Amino acid sequence: MEIRWLEDFIALARTRHFSRAADEQNVTQPTFSRRIKLLEEEMRVTLVDRNTLPLTLTPAGEIFLQSAEQITRQIREAKARCQAIKEQDQSTVRLVTTQSLLLGYFRDVFEPLCQKLELNIEVNMQASSWPSSMFIDAINGNECDVMLCFWHPAMDFFSGLDPEHVEFILLDKELLIPCVAADNAGQPRHQLPGTRQKPLPYIAYDDGAFLAPVVSEHLKRQPEMAQLQVQTSDLHAASIKALVKEGFGIGWLPERLVTDSLQFGSLVKAGDTSWHIPLEIRLYRDKRNPHPKANQFWQRLQATISRQE
Hints:
309 residues; transcription; D-Maltodextrin-Binding Protein, domain 2; 3 domains; WH_DNA-bd_sf; seven-stranded mixed beta sheet; elongated; alpha/beta; Arc Repressor Mutant, subunit A
């Protein structure tokens, strides 16, 4: 059964005339009559009494009319809702980002900027638990429109992005800071670089984390080797922060994520500025992305950032 057969039948019930109903449905009368006949064959019952003038519906036709009107109304409403969802999807830019940026830079800086510019963004919350490789796959596979992330030369997984088609906007700078819980006197419980006899307990990043290669590379370049003993590792800076605050060891954390903790003394810096690691906060996109609003979003944001420089 086709939906247009139901619409034909409703038109016939309203006009009580085959030719007028055919005109309403923009078909020839023979075609219209054939579709009504097909509907009756499908229902295995006569719906229209053709022996009266004007035409009337049979008792079965009266019952069927109620169902036909209900079905077509539900289809129109469903179609309207689906169209609204489609329009919303087309006007919303899909963003993925790491948990630490979601809790800090995105919430405090990027989201308010987008709201000011009336740029609609939808955050994929599942991405906050992704390892770094899945972010690269999301950009390459058009599973997102933009990617908000940290960048550092040591992050070799960015080689998975095609520089010919993938571009970025430099949004801001960040620092990774070695942090540790304070003792009762407000001093760091552990101080870099530590000693071989007493290595510092270290809360590391998992190998799949964005920041894992950054810390590793920086430690290799230090003139004085840090004496660290890994206690555990985690994918997320927020989880590492929680363990560090509880006194389980030292950890490198984004400055925005620990600003309040440093201010109120629940965390202190575990070393001087030579142990700080500079990062960039970037927004990436694939220029081949077919999303109709992605390019407009990118151009407006790029223009705004350029004016702020």
